[in-house]
Amino acid sequence: MSHPSRPQxxxxxxxxAVPLFLLAEVLVVIGLFQLIGWWTIVVLLAMSALxxxxxxxSSRRAWRDIRTMRRTGVAPERTAGDAGFTLASGVLLMIxxxxxxxxxxxxxxxxxxxxxxxxxxxxxxxxxxxxxxxxVYDGAGTQLFGDxxxxxxxEQPRPTYEQVPRQAIEGKIVDGGGNx
Length: 180
Description:
InterPro entries: FxsA. This protein is mostly helical. The chain has helices at 12-36, 39-72, 80-94, 98-108, 110-131, and strands at 136-137, 143-145. Strands 1-2 form a two-stranded antiparallel sheet. Helix 2 (39-72) packs antiparallel against helix 3 and helix 3 packs antiparallel against helix 4 (98-108). The radius of gyration is 25 Å and the shape is flat.
């Protein structure tokens, strides 16, 4: 018999993380001010100006991509995720703080953006599937994530992608001439 699950509080971790991050921002700015003096203000203003430039260029590029897609019907090679992370990078750069600025600069670098996109994709997939009550298994039948039901075990390993037989239907498509 399974026990009713307790309602989770997903924001519990973030309630402590945000004030700690803000405290760290203030301490880093104070430390930088003690190290380089009034140049700290110049650094913060330069990062904010860079953030504004990134947001402006990103939004122009996104509109250009949308117009191109509407005109040609082909999606641009740049993904919406890249555009979103570039926009987030600009927002982080505009926030007056050294740590948020460094995070924004990291998101501007293409290989870190790819790693962040993959990580966000995995975490989002797990959250969505977990919220739907889906349990995901690897090829050996080991549960990767999802609800755990006490006393329940997978009888046999789930098939991996390569084990599923592929079927193809040969033939040719004939246009019905709009008589449907």
